[in-house]
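[Meeting: bench + compute handoff]

Bench side (C.D.) handed over the final construct sequence. Compute side (W.E.) agreed to return the predicted structure before the next meeting so the bench team could plan truncations. Sequence as handed over:
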Amino acid sequence: MLLLVCAAAAAQPPVYWLLWFDTEDYIEPSSDDAALRLAEGLRERGVRATFKIVGEKARVWLARGRHDVIRALAAHDIGYHTEFHSVPPAPAEYLAEMGLLDGAAEFSRRERGGLLLLEKLFGLTPSCYGQPGNSWAPQTNLALREWGVKVYMDDAGQVGFDEQPFWYGGLLYIFNLGRHTVRAELNDAGALEAAKKRFDEAVASARRLGGGVIQTYYHPTEWVTTKFWDGVNFSHGANPERSQWQKPPLRTPESREQAFRIFFEWVDHVRRTPNLRIVTAREAIALFEPRDAAPPAGLARRLAESLDAHEGFSAADLLLSLLGVEPRHVDGPLRRAATTWNEPEIPRPVFDRARRDAAEFVRAHGRLPDAVWLGSHCLSLEDFAATLAADEGGGPVKVRKGRADFERRIGRGAARLYNWVIHPKGFAPESLLEMARLQAWTIKPARLRR
């Protein structure tokens, strides 16, 4: 009977669980003790989590002599969580009026110092990055790739793909997992059983997909304070001097102990889940099929009807296949262009030259062109891709309108998607969502290895 039970469990589709902590509160010293206790308690249970650390938090550990915290976290996976987190301006604020390339350079200028400090302290490049609050911006993808950070792990609504991990901007995104993001409420012991049930339901949902990923996240400061440190000081763009920063109110000792009991009991429930593997952001890359495989012959023709990911390949992958460009990551266009060619057909020699020029542009710049030129007129990238996909060769080329279905993967309503308490009131950077739609040429599901 035991062998039958084990065989049944092994036959179940795999489920992977990522536990991560945004380790950010550098104002309240007792949050250091919480991070230490969490790291040690998880290690005792054989659980490795990912601690995404703010650069200033690491500097404060050094100033306070908290080498015990650094040693404890070194047994886990280390991610990065910006230089100062909530001190204005947050990333989305300073990137909202910048383009893709200059924004990436500015993000690197402002944020790389903390990453380099973590590399020095822990001896390796952080495995992942996640934005503070919902202050997400697409320009960060380029900088992270340059830094050697391969995973974007956080939770917000700006971009997503069917509530599972996906490739976007050349990174593995563990992001916007919807019902597959589950956590236990630390303030209500009576809600623990309901949290266990929600986790079990998420596991069942992932198995129905043929295997999948679940994530849980917290902040160590949640175990020691009743309000977030940054909301106390930087709400709605407030920017007091450091000498005026206030500590957040503390939990009672009894409330703190209850929060630890709830959490570790919930973790123990997760650990008992059959055929569930606990992984870190650093380990996650190996779970998925390679990012830049060549699509099968003929699949790119589907771009004629729908510019979207098809059978695990992004619209950019498929367009490169049509252009004869070797498989590689390329970024999306920098801006949206309109078609100015006003004839229903394009002479074959003109179109062939345009196709060669587009391929050369991609190879030279590592991104898709905004438009493809036909002499002094052009096709939008969407229209060019659809026209190329539908072309059967021989004679004039019929122009086809492209339908950018991949844009539905990008959230709508910047005021809602950027409603973090730290952003100024009324902050609604539609420019970032438009840039995200342009970069959605690169989006595709991350497919688990079989």
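W.E. noted at the follow-up: The longest strand covers residues 15-23. C.D. will use this when planning the next construct.
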